[in-house]
Amino acid sequence: MEIGHAGDVSEPSGLLILGRGGHGRVLAEIARDLGITDIAWLDDDPAASGVLGPLNLCHEQELRRHFCRALVGIGQARVRLEWLVRLQQLGFACPTFVHPSAWVSPTAQLGAGTVVMPKGAVMCGARLESGCIVNTAASVDHDCLLAEGVHVCPGAHLAGGVQVGARSWIGIGASVIQAIRIGADVTVGAGAAVVHDLAAGVTAVGVPARPLFSRQPEP
Questions:
Q1: What's the CATH number for 96-207?
Q2: Residues 107-123: pLDDT tens digits?
Q3: Is 99 a catalytic residue?
Q4: Whole-model pTM?
């Protein structure tokens, strides 16, 4: 793999994004809004613009000479988290990204690789573990706890004190009332209103949200 970028390669400053699908391209736009211009991808589509090579890290030493930071632009939570762990093991910094139009309380905590998209909001005392996504115009209110890999989709809102288990998906436009507990690997459908706790592995839809079916949570 040959990598050519302007600047002093002895002090890598670029951003490497794993995956050039929709989420990966959004990350790149946020990076540019944050002043990062040296951006490249790894993706299995070699024809895509800006792609250095396939989605693997077999050339990690060469990559780390050019990129000090890396993010995972993959929507599927389990895969995103696996790559995030691998990047950290190889010594890449996996920063949190907050779009300039978003608001994050100074008392909130964001884990490695967590992203807050345009117009998103994370309020006081909230804690988001690694690899979470707070998507466009979504909000996470005070004292919420989001385990690793949670995705709060565009326009979804979590009231105060909500807890969401690992890899769960809060669908577009969904609402969760205060102090609700949502287990791991839960899918909340678009526009749903969650007013009761949801066990791990369920898919819940409707107003109020009711479980459609359940699957075994991932280990």
A1: 2.160.10.10
A2: 999 999 999 999 999 99
A3: no
A4: 0.89
